[in-house]
């Protein structure tokens, strides 16, 4: 997972992944204008790597944990996070002077490296952040090798 250590490469990979996702979404859509007229909510997502885990953190304030689905696809080694943030005042007649909070469905796909322990994936939701911990297999963890000095 060395791509996360080089900031320029990380930015290019993120841009490439986002462009591919948008193209796939556009080509799969029966009515491509729906993508323009009804944009899909894409919550901010961080993917971090520690010595023992890959950590995915998503900003999804205002959601209930029961409305969030996390799925791991073992053949493709990717994580799918989806859900729906529902507007609480829908149905009521109100006058809005400003609306910036995005409501509706979202879906994020995170590609994972080989060498993870899929059975150990856990998730927690606190203070509007969903955090997914993906443990690395022991053999995939970085370890320090001591150097013996000969005299």
Task: Provide the number of structural domains.
Answer: 2
Rg computed from alpha carbons, rounded to a whole number of angstroms: 20 Å
CATH arch. level architecture of the largest domain: Sandwich
Helix fraction?
Answer: 10-25%
Order of helices and strands: HHEEEEEEE
Name of the level-1 CATH class of the largest domain: Mainly Beta
Number of strands: 7
What does this entry look like structurally?
The chain has 151 residues and is α+β, with helices and mostly antiparallel strands. The protein has two domains: 39 residues; 112 residues, Immunoglobulin-like (Sandwich). The chain is 18% helix and 30% strand. The chain is built from two helices and seven strands; from the N terminus they run H-H-E-E-E-E-E-E-E. A four-stranded antiparallel sheet has the order 1-2-7-6, with no helix packed on it. A three-stranded antiparallel sheet has the order 3-4-5, with no helix packed on it. A hairpin with a 2-residue loop joins strand 6 and strand 7. The longest helix has 22 residues. The two termini are 37 Å apart. The relative contact order is 0.18. The model has no long low-confidence stretch (mean pLDDT 82).
Descriptive keywords:
four-stranded antiparallel beta sheet, alpha+beta, 151 residues, Immunoglobulin-like, three-stranded antiparallel beta sheet, single chain
């Amino acid at each position: 997972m060395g791509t996360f250590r080089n900031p320029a490469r990380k930015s290019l990979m993120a841009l490439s992944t986002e462009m591919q996702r948008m193209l796939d979404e556009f080509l799969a859509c029966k009515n491509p204008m729906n993508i323009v007229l009804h944009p899909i909510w894409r919550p901010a997502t961080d993917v971090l790597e520690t010595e023992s885990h890959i950590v995915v953190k998503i900003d999804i304030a205002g959601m209930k944990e029961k409305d969030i689905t996390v799925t791991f696809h073992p053949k493709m080694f990717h994580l799918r996070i989806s859900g729906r943030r529902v507007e609480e005042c829908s149905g009521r007649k109100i006058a809005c002077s400003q609306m910036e909070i995005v409501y509706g469905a979202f879906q994020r796909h995170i590609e994972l490296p080989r060498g993870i322990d899929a059975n150990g994936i856990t998730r927690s939701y606190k203070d509007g952040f969903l955090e997914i911990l993906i443990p690395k297999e022991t053999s995939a963890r970085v370890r320090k090798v001591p150097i013996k000095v000969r005299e």
